Amino acid sequence: MKHALCLLSTLFATGVLTLAGADRKLVLIAGKPSHPPGMHEFRAGCLLLQKCLAEVPGIQLAVHTNGWPTSDDAFAGADAVVIYSDGGGGHPAIQGDHLKLLEGLIKQGVGFGVMHYACEVPKGKGGQEFLNWVGGYYEDHYSCNPIWSADYQNFPRHPVTRGLKPFSIKDEWYFNLRWRPELKGVTPILVARPSDPVRDGPYVWPAGPYPHIQAAKGQDETMMWVSERPAGGRGFGFTGGHFHSNWGDPNFRKVILNALLWVAKVELPADGVSSAVTGEDLKQNLDPKK
């Protein structure tokens, strides 16, 4: 008994017992209000995902709304950080010293994910980092952002696709992204073939069309992907999420819930994350917009 107590004391002192039973911490950053009602509802979307994962074992989801957390303490103990926000030059990850903070976390093996507009960063400020951290990113005037119905019929064998069934849904699906050379460490998850009229535009902004997008007619495109970094750590990118109502689709929702667990290194159920969302749920936490 004395030896057993000594062993338990040692385990607690080293944190082994605490770590074994601890949830993985996922920090989810919801961007500031943007776009008309029902679009870019980052706060409502993040809080809905939090609700869906509330009873899932192994994960603690901390949601920070209205942009970047006010204190760096928000990232203490994080196992993954996911951003759902506006991007481009106003991307929260490239303001101030945020890239440096994220780089420090990622060097420790922290997972990193981006959703919808947060997939876009300027080529010269964040582009290389996103290639390293996530595996790809949206580049202005190279990638495009039409609103169209993507038809997803086949999925790779991967934890993020567990329980996923074929589905088609209308969204602002970005494509023709910048990728790591030879897609090293990148696994496409949602792949569909844009029609010729989709490639011909108009795109949301700039309206296009771009000749290099038109020249690729008949090719498949990747709208969601996962990645693994050579030094450790996981990433994912998801170009959908423009219309808040799409979170009501069970497959649209499942692939993201799966990705949130995976990027934080939480073991997924055999059939993926199950969740139920009502019409009333979709009305909750919407930003007040004119």
Secondary structure: number of strands: 11
CATH superfamily: Class I glutamine amidotransferase (GATase) domain
CATH fold call: Rossmann fold
Continuous helix count: 9
Shape: globular
Query: Can you give the mean pLDDT?
Result: 93
Radius of gyration, Cα only, in angstroms?
20 Å
Content of β-strand: 15-25%
- Give the biggest sheet: 7 strands, mixed
Helix content: 25-40%
Element-level helix/strand string? HHEHEEHEHEEEEEHHEEHH
Q: Which parts are unreliable, with pLDDT below 50 for 5 consecutive residues or more?
A: 1-20
Tell me what the CATH architecture is: 3-Layer(aba) Sandwich
Q: Please indicate the count of domains.
A: 1
CATH class: Alpha Beta
Distance between the termini: 68 Å
> What strand line-up does the widest sheet have?
2-1-3-4-11-10-9
Architecture blueprint of SSEs:
Elements: H1 2-14, H2 16-21, E1 24-30, H3 42-52, E2 59-64, E3 80-84, H4 98-107, E4 111-115, H5 123-133, E5 136-137, E6 148-152, E7 167-171, E8 178-179, E9 186-192, H6 196-200, H7 211-214, E10 221-228, E11 234-238, H8 250-263, H9 279-282
Parallel strand pairs: 1-2, 1-3, 3-4, 4-11
Antiparallel strand pairs: 5-8, 6-7, 9-10, 10-11
What do these coordinates show?
- By secondary structure, this protein is α/β, with parallel strands linked by helices.
- The chain has one domain: Rossmann fold (3-Layer(aba) Sandwich).
- Helix content is 27%, strand content 20%.
- It has nine helices and eleven strands.
- The strands form three sheets. The protein has a seven-stranded mixed sheet, with helices on one face.
- The longest helix has 14 residues, at 250-263.
- The protein starts with a helix and ends in an 8-residue tail after the last helix.
- The model is unreliable at 1-20 (pLDDT under 50).
